[in-house]
Design a protein that fits this description.
Elements: E1 14-16, E2 20-24, E3 29-33, E4 42-45, E5 48-49, E6 58-62, E7 65-68, E8 76-81, E9 86-96, E10 102-113, E11 118-127, E12 136-138, E13 140-146, E14 153-156, E15 163-166, E16 172-177, E17 184-186, E18 192-193, E19 199-200, E20 211-215, E21 218-223, E22 232-237, E23 242-247, E24 256-261, E25 265-271, E26 279-281, E27 285-294, H1 301-309, H2 320-325, H3 335-344, E28 361-364, H4 378-388, H5 391-412, H6 454-462, H7 465-477, H8 481-484, H9 490-507, H10 510-525, E29 536-537, E30 544-545, H11 547-550, E31 564-566, H12 567-583, H13 588-609, E32 611-612, E33 620-621, E34 625-627, H14 641-648
Parallel strand pairs: 17-28
Antiparallel strand pairs: 1-2, 2-3, 3-4, 4-5, 6-7, 6-13, 8-9, 9-10, 10-11, 11-27, 12-26, 13-25, 14-15, 14-22, 16-20, 16-24, 18-19, 20-21, 22-23, 23-27, 24-25, 29-30, 31-34, 32-33
Helix pairs in contact: 4-5, 4-6, 5-7, 6-7, 7-9, 9-10, 9-12, 12-13, 12-14
Length: about 650
């Protein structure tokens, strides 16, 4: 995706009218007001209005009172994308109570499509303002659609088909999805266990299991946790109109809810009414949900929701298209070509597919995990595999990438919405009240595993502006003292260098490239590592030894007996980062210096890190770690031998 001003023909869908924005898709006309944003101020089909005036928009309940988006007269609403096929409206603002006090911020993106009477709503709840440096707490948050369909017929989804009924004045139908078996990744600190192996659920957002549909408190249908509602929707229908609302992947984002009233309100409970626990969000965190509002659905509700839940995506049929276009930093190869290369060089062929992705929602990821999958950006690998795999596997790769990037953008980033992320006077969420009930352990990209760099490629593939904004927030944090503290570690310093280069590639802001060069110049060029106790680059042998490789920095501060180098760091991260620095250098001299170190570390890897013992696979390769100063023993006795081999070879 690139910025452009082209138009293939036809009028733009959105028109700025001053106080409001008008979107005409041909199937419906939508009106979005700027001051006091309330999602959709009006929707008309054939000139017939479908909404009542002055809805609250987003309604948050906390501290015993309600806070709404419609009360914020200073909300900012803009046309972000416009054309004859699609338009995107972005709104940013606060939730205010009746006295004008604010509580948490939001960003909403409304997507409109030519020929359709629907909008796709991307709602992001933001707790990253210096105005309120707290771990947030609330009891309910709903998107409210005040329709004119009073005393209408209704449908609510279940795991086996919708239940239906008719609403009278003052009545209500309700759907609640609790904890369930939908695939979730729940890392340490979301799921934990006591000394007897019992699951600790103190940080779960609910203890309610399964789902229930009810009318006026009377159950209509219910289901156990192992039978979640796959497509979560509700609809109202009168003789002349039909309105459907749905939450995407609701089962994975438990708890979720819907409330339909006899007065015509449709309330989408992103943090639903009736939960057994309050909801929480750490300071500097975001959380995002995706909702469908369809004012003239075509076909059965379950079918409409299926298309929303599993949207159509496309790719080039020939991956060489991406290589010819220079779309990515790396050249893509087919799995057939990859396999043939492995076979030709005598390597096992199971490794390339060993970490195949699958569709799941990420609830918490612990970025301090060592080895294996946490040595690379899983989301980026899945995005690239989307372009390389056959159709069925490709779809799963897209789904995994989408959800992992969504998690990374919301939770793994240190967000600083209205302040500089490098400031030292901002509260640490780890030390704020309420953190004991929030999964927070290593929730932010940490210095040794800052796998944020795939966000740029995902932005290019998806066009999701939220991804770009989040990645630039991460750029601020890279200048934060917490991150620079990792420069004593071999992988901390090189990952920061690589992330800075990648952020320059996204933004074009020379502050990132200059910071990358300054880091490279200070640490790799000006510090010379000789035999024994020294850190820096060994310009005779080609390797870089960090301060952490050289000294026991966290305990005695004394030199280590051996400077120990990890082959998966020296062999993968350093050549890749030096090559990226060369490719993006501001001057020929900078490019030449980066190329010098790239050649040096490559020669070191081939001549000193590579062990050969015979013609059979695994009789040669890379030890996991080895000394820089002494001849190591036969590394085949090291239990991590195969681990080092596997982690270096794919990088080379």
């Amino acid at each position: 995706m690139v910025q452009n001003s082209g138009n293939r023909g036809g009028p733009d869908l959105a028109q700025d009218l001053g106080a409001t924005i008008r979107i005409d898709t041909g199937a419906a006309v939508f009106s979005v007001r700027k001051s006091g944003f309330n999602l959709l101020d009006q929707v008309t089909i054939g000139g017939v209005p479908l909404l009542r005036a002055d809805g609250p928009g987003i309604e948050l309940v906390a501290a015993g009172r309600d806070w709404t988006s419609a009360r914020d007269a200073s909300s900012q609403v803009l046309i972000e994308e416009n054309g004859p096929v699609r338009a995107v409206i972005v709104a940013r603002g606060r939730h205010l109570d009746s006295n004008g006090n604010d509580r948490l911020d939001y960003t909403v993106r409304l997507h409109f499509y030519r020929g359709h009477a629907r909008t796709r709503v991307i709602y992001t709840l933001r707790n990253a303002s210096e105005r309120s440096q707290t771990n947030a707490l609330w009891t309910r948050l709903e998107l409210v659609v005040p329709s004119v369909l009073s005393q209408a017929d209704f449908q609510l989804a279940t795991s086996s088909g919708p239940v239906a009924g008719s609403l009278s004045a003052g009545s209500q139908a309700r759907l609640f999805q609790g904890e369930n078996s939908y695939p979730n990744f729940r890392d340490y600190d979301f799921n934990d266990f006591d000394g007897n192996g019992n699951l600790i659920r103190d940080k779960w957002p609910t203890l309610i299991e399964g789902w229930q549909a009810s009318e006026n408190g009377t159950p209509l249908a219910s289901g156990a946790r192992d039978a979640p509602i796959e497509r979560f929707f509700g609809q109202l229908q009168s003789p002349t109109a039909r309105l459907l609302v749905a939450t995407r992947l609701a089962a994975g984002w438990w708890p979720q809810g819907l409330r339909l009233s006899g007065g015509g309100d449709l309330r989408i409970g992103l943090f639903p009414d009736g939960n057994d626990r309050p909801f929480r969000l750490r300071f500097t965190g975001h959380v995002t949900r995706e909702v469908l509002l369809d004012f003239a659905p075509v076909g059965a509700a379950a079918d409409v929701t299926y298309r929303f839940q599993h949207p159509l995506v496309a790719r080039a049929s020939d991956i060489e298209h991406y290589n010819r276009a220079g779309a990515f930093d790396e050249q893509l190869v087919s799995f057939a070509e990859q396999r043939s290369r492995y076979l030709a060089t005598g390597y096992p062929t199971t490794y390339p597919d060993f970490f195949a992705p699958f569709a799941e929602i990420i609830r918490h990821y612990y970025w301090g995990t060592g080895g294996g999958r946490n040595q690379y950006d899983q989301a980026k690998v899945s995005a690239m595999n989307f372009l390389r795999w056959d159709a069925d596997a490709s779809a799963v790769a897209w789904q995994y990438a989408e959800q992992k990037f969504a998690y990374n953008a919301d939770q793994a980033i240190y967000h600083s919405d209205d302040f500089d992320g490098g400031r030292g006077d901002i509260a640490d969420f780890n030390q704020l009240p309420g953190i004991e009930a929030i999964p927070y352990a290593k929730v932010i990209f940490e210095g040794e595993h800052p796998h944020a760099y795939g966000l740029r490629q995902w932005y290019q593939l998806s066009g999701d502006e939220r991804i770009r904004e989040s990645y630039l927030d991460w750029g601020e944090y890279l200048f934060h003292p917490v991150m620079t503290g990792y420069d004593v570690e071999a992988r901390g310093i090189i990952w920061r260098l690589y992330n800075l280069i990648d952020l320059w590639r996204l933004s074009g802001d020379d502050a990132y490239r200059n910071a990358a060069w300054s880091l490279f110049d200070t640490e790799m060029l000006q510090k010379t590592a000789a035999l024994g106790v020294s850190e820096g680059t060994d310009f005779n042998r080609g390797f870089y030894a960090s301060r952490g490789d050289t000294f026991d920095i966290y305990n005695t501060g004394l030199p280590w007996p051996d400077r120990e180098l990890a082959s998966f760091i020296s062999g993968a991260m350093y050549p890749r980062s030096y090559a990226a620095l060369e490719a993006t250098a501001a001057t020929p001299l900078q490019a030449d210096r980066a190329r010098d170190l790239l050649e040096g570390v490559s020669r070191f890897l081939i001549t000193e890190h590579w062990w050969e013992f015979g013609p059979n696979p695994f009789d040669y390769g890379y030890p996991y770690r080895q000394s820089a100063d002494n001849i190591p023993p036969d590394p085949r006795g090291d239990g991590n031998w195969i681990g080092g081999f596997k982690e270096v070879w794919p990088a080379l």
